[in-house]
Amino acid sequence: MKRLVLPLAFWSLAGASCTSTPSRPTMHPVVDTTPPASDAGASAAAERPRVSPPASGPARDVHLPAVRTARLPNGVALNLVEYHTLPVLHLRLTVRAGLSSDPANLPGLSSFTGDMLKEGTRSHTSAQLAETIEFVGGSLNVTTGTDSTLVSISVLRDHAETALTLLAEVLSEPNFLQTEIDKLKRREGDRLRRSVNDPGWQSRRAFYNAVYGPAHPYGHTDLTLDVLRRITRADLVSYHRQRYVGGNMFLVAVGDFDPAAFQALATRTLGRIRGGQAPAITFPAVAPRTARQVVLVDRPQSPQSVVRIGHLGLRRRDEDFVPLRVANHLLGGGAASRLFMDLRELRSLTYGAYSAVGESVETAPYFANASVRTPVTGDAVHALYAHLGCVTSQAPPEAEMAQTRSYLIDSFPLSIETPANVADLVTNLRLYDLPDDYYDRYRARVAQVDTAGALQVARRYIHPEQSVLVVVGSAEAPVAVGPLCPALATPAHAQDTMAQQLAACAPAAAAGDGGAAPPERSTQPLQEVLRAFGPVRVLNLEGQTVRELAATAASEGPLRTRCEDLNAPALQRSAHHETAGASGAPH
Q1: In this structure, are residues 541 and 206 in contact, taking their beta carbons and an 8 Å threshold?
Q2: Crossing angle, helix 451-461 and helix 398-411, to 10 degrees?
Q3: Per-residue pLDDT for 26 more than 50?
Q4: How confident is the model over 13-34, as a mean pLDDT?
Q5: End-to-end CA distance of the chain
Q6: Among 238, 272, 306, where does a domain finish?
Q7: Tens of pLDDT along 427-440?
Q8: Is residue 458 part of a domain?
Q9: What is the domain-level CATH number for residue 220?
Q10: Which long-range contacts (CB under 8 A, 24 or more apart) does 256-261 make?
Q11: Which residues are CB-contacts of 96 (< 8 A; sequence separation ≥ 6)?
Q12: Is 471 a domain residue?
């Protein structure tokens, strides 16, 4: 329906004719000495006492809805959560069959098997499966990760039986037609050939291989073209028979349903899944690292370098996971963190720099990463190592710690505001073997991490001197080395803070061409710059070692950094040019 738009003059006339007080006759003028209403209101407001708002109370823990548990005769575990706000149903069926369960000679078989689940069953083709779920307005997704394959279905509550029947069918009755296998192989081959040119994909592959080694279940992150060629229908059938059994699965259902009726429906539908237990996965010990290792994936003509620094961290279920996440957040958890403010806001090396605590059933990695302009790759690596060193050597200021705790505490309720969010959290509880009250106590545990606790847990799990440095970039590309500008070598700037050094070099930096390194600085090939951080193994894009370079003496970074300059409050002051000049440098 079109909206009627009336001219301004109409509203002026309407306002004049609809006044609630009759106008005075013009032949009897009256002088009104009453102050205008607005003035009277302002006078009254000025006389009222100013009252401060009440202080905020402590954040209360947010509780997940109750989870009802049951187990079907075939071993499938049920986790049911009533959520009656919306007439929807969210199903998450997790099979403990991820990349970590791949056969040693066929890494990536789990993800290929997961992708084949939607490509046809004994009763329906892939097109018919898609039509069935779309006809009821639902969605079906299959995702394979490190430790699991997740099949997700969301529908309106009235279509619960359709969803569960379809879920049971794709899990227990895939037909693995050779024609569909061939189609998927072509699609996956195209994806892998594109991925070879993706620096992020290359960085992840090289990092996990270096941290865990090729024989570890976590040492690979994807298929390879060689494995793709060798996968047969018999491999898929064998893997599916071993891993897709009731004792290796659990269902999380969140939505508007009656638990008793839903359990009966699940028994009729998911009960078709074959029972049994899957073979145990063996995780060999990873030898402790005693020094830095550098891996350079040579990507000729690359305009950027993808940098990742890390090592083994901890398991998702370990008690220190929450304290380490708190310590990590102030380092690189978001746009207000140290890495982001320094490498992006102050030095303009990247669009974003972050750090993360990995999540997996067994020991996951801890790492920091950034994508930077090639000429400043060395500067970025120096900066990342400086920050990793400071978070483990100096306790954060209380103001920074309070801001970090506040963010994590106040943002947590957003993670459980929808039934889909609740389904994801309950899935994590079961996958990582966490206690049922884990998320109920989460905010209280965050609040308990003080400055001393953050420093202690960082020292326990962050080890920059025993890390793996992976860089994906052009091995022969020129990279700036040495001080940011010649002025820093003079006695006048010997005691400058980082902000003052940046200000002193600002004119030289502005003289650079198109954001490249200033002309005053010397350059070296990227592979030579990286030798200052440890012995370098150079890989080609296929992951093959092409040469190895011995380490050289440590090099000087672009700036002299002190840990008191690298916490969030100091970086914020630097960003706003609020630091007083110790040497008269311009700010």
Answers
A1: no
A2: 80
A3: no
A4: 40
A5: 59
A6: 272
A7: 999 999 999 999 99
A8: yes
A9: 3.30.830.10
A10: 256/82, 256/83, 256/84, 256/85, 256/86, 256/87, 256/88, 256/89, 256/157, 257/80, 257/82, 257/89, 257/157, 257/160, 259/68, 259/80, 259/82
A11: 147, 148, 243, 248, 249, 278, 431
A12: yes
pLDDT on residue 449: 98
SS3 395: coil
Dist. CA 6–CA 14, nearest whole Å: 11
Angle at alpha carbon of residue 564, lines to 558 and 567, rounded to 5°? 90
Residues 80-114 as b or e (16 or more Cβ within 10 Å = b): bbbbeeeebbbbbbbbbbbbbbbeeebbbbbbbbb
Give the amino acid at 581: G
Q: How confident is the model over 116-151, as pLDDT tens digits?
A: 999 999 999 999 999 999 999 999 999 999 999 999
Answer yes or no: do 86 and 214 share one domain: yes
**In the predicted model, is pLDDT for residue 42 greater than 70?**
no
Residue 10 forms part of a structural domain: no
Counted domains in the chain? 2
The SS3 assignment for 549 reads: strand
Q: What does residue 473 show for φ and ψ, rounded to 5 degrees?
A: -175, -175
DSSP code for 129: H
Q: What is the pLDDT of residues 311-357, one digit of tens each?
A: 999 999 999 999 999 999 999 999 999 999 999 999 999 999 999 99
Identify whether residues 516 and 402 lie together within a single domain.
yes
Whether 261 maps to a domain, the answer reads yes
Q: Which domain holds residue 314?
A: 293-575
Q: Say whether pLDDT at 12 is over 80.
A: no
The most confident of the ranges 350-364, 498-512, 562-576 is 350-364
Kindly list the distances between the CA atom of residue 338 and the CA atoms of 4, 344, 348, in Å, as whole numbers in the listed order: 54, 10, 14
Same domain for 171 and 129, yes or no, is yes
**Chain mean pLDDT for the chain:** 89
- Closest by Cα among 312, 298, 140 to 210: 312
Closest CA to 206 of 388, 385, 472, 466: 472
Pairing relationship of beta strands 293-298 and 536-539 according to DSSP bridges: parallel
The pTM of the full predicted model, rounded to 2 decimals, is 0.86
Q: Do 185 and 260 reside in the same domain of the chain?
A: yes
Domain boundary residue, one of 272, 303, 335: 272
User: What CA–CA distance (Å, rounded) separates 561 from 573?
Assistant: 15
